[in-house]
Structures are given as C-alpha cells and as structure tokens.
Backbone:
C-alpha cells in the first residue's frame, strides 16, 4: 500500500508487505525490504537500503491521543547511501546525514540530529533531543539519554549508558557531552551533565561521576584518572597508541592517507 | 485473519496483516496497528492501542511440544487505555492493569501481575512470576528476573538488572524486593533476595550485595551507604530533593495538587 | 512466496507471510510461524520451530553493495529439534547444532559455530567468528564480541559483555576464552583476550581485567579473587555448592543420573 501523495524515484525496489504513508519521498535507487512501515512525512535520500520491517517516521505521543498523523510538521530525513538493517524504529522530526549505517533493532527518537558517516549498532537506543556529530561510532546496545551531545569521531562501545537526570525523577535533564575523538569503554555509565574531554579514554565498566579532562584515561567505580593516553603503549610493540587518529583509519575520512595529511589538506589553520 | 470465536467491540481499528486467535476479546475503541499476532485467550480492554507487530498471548513452552494452544487456561489481560508500542511480546497468563504504557520491543513473560499506570521502556524484559505494583516506572533495557516484587511508585532506570539465583545454576530462585518510592539508578545490579527499603536511592552503576535500609543512599561496587536521602540537596537551589514525592508530580495520582493533599484526601489514617 | 529451488520436507507447517529463498532446505516436521524471512542457502533440520518474523540467513555486508545474494557460498545450518522464538536474526555462514533454543530478538552473526544443546536468551547478540561449545547457557541481553571462544557447560548470565579490542579502535581483536563449567555473573564485563578458567565463578557486576584461574571466585571492579569455589557453602544447608555439576542436572546430559555416573559411563580415561 503506497499513499497516492508519496513520491517514488527511479529504480526503487519495494518488497512485499511494505506500507508507505502520505507526504513521503523515496529518492532513486532506494531498496526497501519486506514489511517496512514508512509512516507520513519521511524523506529517504538516494541509494539507501531500508532493512526488513523497519518503521520510519514512527508516531510521536500526540498521535496516540487523536489517531491523526496528518499534521505534516514532523518529518524524518535519512541521508544518501544509508544502510539501515532490519527492524529499526526511527521517529519523525529527526534529521540524519549521509552514509548512515545501523545494525538491527535500533531505536532513534524524535528531535534528534545525526551527522554524516555515523554508525549505530544493534539494539542501541538514541533518545530524543540528542545531537550526534560526524563519524561517530556507537556500538551495540548503547543507551543514549535525551539531550546527549556527541562531537565528531567519538567511539562508544557496547552497553554504555549516558544518563541525564541528576536528581531523579525530575524535569531538569542535563545531557552528557562527549568531545571529539573520545572513547567510552564497554559497559560504562556516565552521570548526568558530565563532560568527557577530547581524546579521553573511559575504561570498560567505569562509573563516571566527574568531568574527564582532555587526554585522560579513567577507570573504576567511581572512575579515577590513572594516566594520560600519551603514556599508553601497545602491548606487543611498545609504541604509543593514542591519539588513535594517528594509527587507525578504517572508515575515516583519512582512510586513503593519514590523519596529518588529510587534516593539513583541509586548509585549516593550525590549532583549529 | 480473525478467528470466528473472537469478540470484537465497537469502533475497533485493525490494520492489515493482523492475526487474531480464538477466545480473544477486543473491547471498544481499541486500535491494533499493522501485523500484530494476537494468539488465543487474550483480552484487550477498551481504548487501548496495540503497536505494530506486537505479539499478545505469546506461546508458553508447552505449545512447542504439541503445537496445541487450545487449552484455554492461559489468558492475557491488558487494561483500559493502555498504549503498547511496536513489537512488544507479552505472554499468556499475565494480568496487566489500566493505563499501561510501554516503549518498543518489550518482553513480558507469563504468570506476572502488573498494576495500574505502569510504564515499561524499550527493550525491557520482565521475566515470569513477577509482581509489579501501581505507578511503577521501569525505564529502557531493564532486566527483571523472575520472582521480583516491586511495590508502588518505584523507579527503575535504564540497564538495571534484578537477579534471582544466589548459587547459580540452581532451582532455588529468590527474587529482589523493592519497596515503594525507591529509586534504582541506571546500570545497577541487585543481587538475589535483596530488599531495597522504602524511599531508598541506589546510585548509578552500583552492585547491591546487601539489603538497603529505608531512605538510604547507596553507591559503589559493592554498594555502601553514603548518606540518607534527607541530606541530599539540589545542586542549584540547595533545597532538599527527597523524598521525591514532595517535589515531583508528573504522571502521578497527585499530579493536580501535591502528595500531601492527595494523600490526606485518601482518608487513610496517619502512618499508613 | 517459496522459491522454486527450495526443498520442503514432509509435514512442514508454514504460516502466512513467510518468504523462503533459493537453495533452502526445510526438513520434515518443521513449523515456521508467521512472517519469517528465510533468505537463500539456509538448511533447517527436522523437528525444529522457527518463531514468527525470524530472519534466517540474513544478508552479509556484500549483499548491500550489489543486491545479489545468489553466490551460494554462505549457508546457515540449524540443527534438529531446535526452538527459535520470535524475531531472531541469524546470519548466513553459521552452523548451529541440535536442540538449539533461543528467546526473542536474538542476533547471531556470520562465521560462528555453535554446538548442541545451547540456549541463548532474549536480546542477546553473538557477533561473528565466535565458537560456542555444547550445553552452553547464555542468558538475556548478553553481548558476545567477535572471536569469543566458549567451552562446554558454561553459563553466562544477563547483561554480560565480552569485549575484544585491547586498544580501541584497532584491527587486532582478541576474543575472550571461557573454559568449561565456568559461570559469569550478571552484568559483568570481561576485557579483551582474558581467559576465565574451568569452574571459575565471576560475581555479578564484576569488571574482569586479568585472567581468572581455575575454580577461582572473583568479584569487584577490578575483579579480585576472594576465594575458591570449593569454599562456598549453601546459605541454608551449609553444604558445598560447587562444582555445580555435582548438584545441578536440569537440561544437562546427566539429567537422568548424576555427573559422576554419566561421566564414568562415557568410557573416558581419568583426567580427560
């Protein structure tokens, strides 16, 4: 069932059982697998793949009151060349950049902005009003509370929780801020309003109760600084391993050269 | 496909792809979204919403032996004005009160009782033989082991785990008991058979290995008491913040006045 | 829709909405519930149950490049008498033994081998290139990182995370190894490359940063050895409780006698 107001581009594949609502735009070369529910006001850009039984433009709370989704104010945009695997649920009024990639059964709420080249793993939940930069890697089963702010090139490993309520229950939510290149180890929890500095490394299983400074390595419950990332050596070669951008390039914009070269070619002034 | 023995009320919406089994009652004004599987012996009360692809009355283990679900002894009841979002799985032989609300992909097992005005977040799992009171808020991705007992007005935040086996693996399960108004911080784990006292606050990331007394604040691994909730002050105003019922009313039965007024109007004797 | 090259055995039930691809073999007495997607090159052995909306033979990454799944090199095999509940996603090129049992919404990636009589709970994620032995019990919402190796008779409780990247992000993954009969308590995280010894017990909420020796009990963050499993007594009877194989038999191959008798009847030489 495709609503008559939906605009479907060239060379679009739509497998059986998919429902497409009103005011939907599906650009060229999009592939929509079995049984997707694309509600109203959704825009899927070209060359994207929508996995089986995904729900795009999921209802916001007011739908359940009046069963009316035709107010046309809540649109979901998914960027070009995105790969959304099976059974994702992405709400309306959210804008996602190009080359977005998800695992299975991801939930993304309304009023969230996601940059380009972001990956989100299976079962992760991104609550409403989050801001996520470019080239952010969010692994499996991460819970990102509302009002979280994630800068570019951040890595968040499995089962991490970002909280937001200092005195629960309350109406005064304070999101976590994670600065660029920081790494949040598996199964860590970050308390409300905490800032994680640029290039910082939070060890697995940490409970972060205080701000973490730039380049700090913190571990434990409560997490304490044990060293600088500059002091960490590879267990076999003995060479420095951080900042990681000097050693790792897969999926990064400097994949074809190295960070230094790529960065200097950007034409930015030093220190920027 | 609707089984001939199903009773469907007035003004019921049933979207495409939904299957309804035998001995099912759907009361008036219920909305059932795309592709739900309502197995046998399910009763959905009036004015409720059943999200797309939810499974109600999921098979218990004996179905898989004989492929026969017609024994009519396992019924699932869902109360009035409930809002069940997409892809919930709720087993048979469970009774849920009115104004129940869930996120996505929640699993609720058999032989569980849930009171009125309970909310359960996306991905949470409620195992079998749990008892959950009224106005309980269970956030995302909580695992509640079987035989857990949760009193009224409890809050359980994301990624909390309630365990039940003191000497695993065993057949002697001892559920956690959480008394009314208690708050369990994100990513905490509570050991088997533990009691969390009324109004207690378990900090995020705690590992609770001993009973927690009324009004105690505990944190750490293992969790230790650091103060009373009465000593906690708001980080800006410096005023007391707990017990939370004196400061927070959204969604609570005292939403239109305050806890004191509401409580005194109940006509209960002091101290009750 | 059933592809003409699919081979369907005797007494197979296929409920509405199921799609079956090319080069699929469904053996006798298999029951496939509503809305399953069985992609190409899948082999389901006899007497198995496939829960509603499960996806078997999920696409590997190269499908998304060319939309061609007909290379016939990735097959998924599911053993006899398996019980796969609703909404599992199991990738191609994975081999699973007999009497496999899962909860709901489990994800199992490619290039993984799973033995006989394994159980995996709701929401758990098994990444690619894992090896899992026989009679392994993996509870709900476990994250098993790629290259994990799990020996026979291991128990992994809810919300456990097995990591694999010592210096993230990197391309040098080192999986966790868990030896036979070990128990990993709820909400623990095991660091990359760690070995958990035979019969060891990791307490709930532990962060395991060092190898754990045979029969050791470790707890805390970081986890430290507090005693041997031989010193643990039942809280009521005061009798030893570990090794658990001497006291627990449900679902085990020694269910009809006891471990000693069963083991001696195997005809193995002592010490094996």
Residues:
């Amino acid at each position: 069932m495709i609503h008559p107001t939906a605009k479907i581009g060239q060379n679009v594949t739509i497998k059986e059982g998919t429902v497409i609502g009103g005011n939907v735009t599906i650009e060229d070369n999009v592939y929509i697998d079995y049984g997707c529910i694309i509600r109203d006001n959704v825009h899927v850009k070209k060359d994207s793949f929508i996995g089986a039984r995904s729900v795009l433009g999921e209802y916001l709370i007011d739908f359940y009151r009046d069963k009316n989704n035709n107010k046309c104010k809540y649109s979901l945009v998914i960027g070009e060349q995105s790969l959304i695997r099976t059974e994702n649920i992405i709400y309306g009024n959210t804008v996602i950049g190009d080359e977005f990639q998800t695992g299975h059964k991801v939930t993304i709420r309304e009023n969230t902005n996601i940059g380009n080249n972001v990956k989100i793993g299976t079962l992760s939940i991104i609550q409403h009003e989050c801001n996520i930069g470019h080239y952010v890697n969010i692994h499996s089963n991460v819970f990102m509370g509302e009002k979280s702010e994630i800068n570019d090139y951040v890595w968040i490993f499995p089962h991490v929780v970002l909280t937001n309520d200092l005195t629960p229950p309350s109406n005064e939510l304070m999101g976590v801020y994670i600065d660029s290149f920081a790494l949040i180890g598996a199964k860590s929890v970050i308390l409300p309003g905490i800032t994680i500095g640029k290039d910082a490394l939070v060890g697995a299983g940490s409970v972060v109760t205080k701000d973490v400074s730039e380049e700090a390595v913190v571990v434990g419950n409560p997490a304490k600084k044990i060293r600088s990332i500059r002091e960490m050596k590879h267990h076999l070669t003995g060479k420095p391993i951080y900042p990681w951008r000097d050693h790792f390039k897969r999926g990064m914009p400097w994949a074809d050269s190295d960070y230094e070269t790529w960065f200097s070619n950007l034409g930015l002034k030093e220190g920027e």
